[in-house]
Design a protein that fits this description.
Keywords: ATP-binding, Cytoplasm, Kinase, Magnesium, Metal-binding, Nucleotide metabolism, Nucleotide-binding, Phosphoprotein, Transferase
Largest sheet: 4 strands, antiparallel
Subunit structure: Homotetramer.
EC number: 2.7.4.6
Number of helices: 7
Function: Major role in the synthesis of nucleoside triphosphates other than ATP. The ATP gamma phosphate is transferred to the NDP beta phosphate via a ping-pong mechanism, using a phosphorylated active-site intermediate.
Mean pLDDT: 98
Shape: globular
Number of strands: 4
GO biological process, one term: CTP biosynthetic process
Strand order of the largest sheet: 2-3-1-4
Distance between the termini: 19 Å
Bound molecules: adenosine-3',5'-cyclic-monophosphate
């Protein structure tokens, strides 16, 4: 089915200057960028986005990393976009990520792992709405 998913290029990958390289992976796989912006997350924005992880031992480090520099956030649209984006990213831990995935190529550790992608259609809808107003989404008309 035609789906949307939410994606973040994290501060480590922005610092490595690979935004375009990562966008190329999305487009080559048939995903379309239908919304996009760069922002430097506040502590409150990062804590709110990752609220489901607030009790985990890595939460403080996660918020600190995600606010350490600008991120690129985007909405990707395409057939099975949630699963396709997760395949492009590879496993959360780069040590387990398959060759040719974003995490294998660009991530240094499970904490600094280059990108985020929604894990299901429901979380995608919530994550998109957290950062984008409806009118910021630009479905293709041609
Ligand atoms: P992300 O998909 O952005 O969601 C939460 C992030 O927490 C995850 O990617 C990892 O970068 C980070 N993280 C750090 N340690 C862990 C862990 N043990 N399990 C899952 N996520 C972790």
């Amino acid at each position: 089915a035609l789906e949307r998913t939410f994606s973040i290029i994290k501060p480590d990958a922005v610092a490595k200057n690979v935004i375009g390289a990562i966008y190329n992976r999305f487009e080559t796989a048939g995903l379309r960028i239908v919304a996009s912006k760069m922002l430097h997350l506040s502590k409150e924005q990062a804590e709110g986005f990752y609220a489901e992880h607030s009790a985990r031992p890595f939460f403080g480090a996660l918020v600190s990393f995600m606010t350490s520099g600008p991120v690129m956030i985007q909405v990707l649209e395409g057939e099975n976009a949630v699963r396709k984006n997760r395949e492009i990213m590879g496993a959360t831990n780069p040590a387990e990520a398959l060759a040719g995935t974003l995490r294998a190529d660009y991530a240094a550790s499970i904490d600094e792992n280059a990108c985020h992608g929604s894990d299901a259609a429901e979380s995608a809808a919530r994550e998109i709405a957290y950062f984008f107003a409806d009118e910021e989404l630009c479905p293709r008309t041609r």
